[in-house]
Amino acid sequence: MLQKAEVFSSYSVNDVDEAKKFYSEKLGLAVKKVEMGILEFEFPSGQKLMIYPKEDHKPATFTVFNFIVENIEDTVDKLTQSGIKFLQYKGSINTDEKGISRSGDGPTVAWFNDPAGNILSVMQL
């Protein structure tokens, strides 16, 4: 029934202005602020992301958005230079000193937080 429906992802932040600055300046995304303080992003592939303000925002404990990249090493280096700090995991998921997980069973992934604590990732398939 929904196979042909257009889709988009959305999640909340506690400070839209801080999020707009982070997503545009640190990640280099084209951000539009629309009605009700909502931020919209449209990607070349046609996918859309909406970030909305929520006073009692609580970040999820899981990844809310993934960026698929061609070269994770280069991407992590560039994002680190822009001030992004990658999360470190030890245990069932292990990351190296850069914050990259190379499990061998799946994609190569590095996770980081936005200013509201939402977990994002860059992923090389």
CATH topology: 2,3-Dihydroxybiphenyl 1,2-Dioxygenase, domain 1
CATH class category:
Alpha Beta
Helix content: 10-25%
* Helix and strand sequence: EHEEEEHEEE
Query: How many independent structural domains?
Result: 1
Strand composition percent: 25-35%
User: Low-confidence segments, ≥5 residues, pLDDT <50?
Assistant: none
Largest sheet: 4 strands, mixed
Mean pLDDT: 94
Total strand segments: 8
Report Rg. Answer: 15 Å
Strand order of the largest sheet: 1-4-3-2
* Gap between N and C termini: 29 Å
Estimated structural class:
alpha/beta
Let me know the CATH homologous superfamily.
2,3-Dihydroxybiphenyl 1,2-Dioxygenase, domain 1
Q: In CATH terms, what is the architecture?
A: Roll
Please give the oligomerization state of what you see: single chain
The backbone outline, from C-alpha atoms, is globular
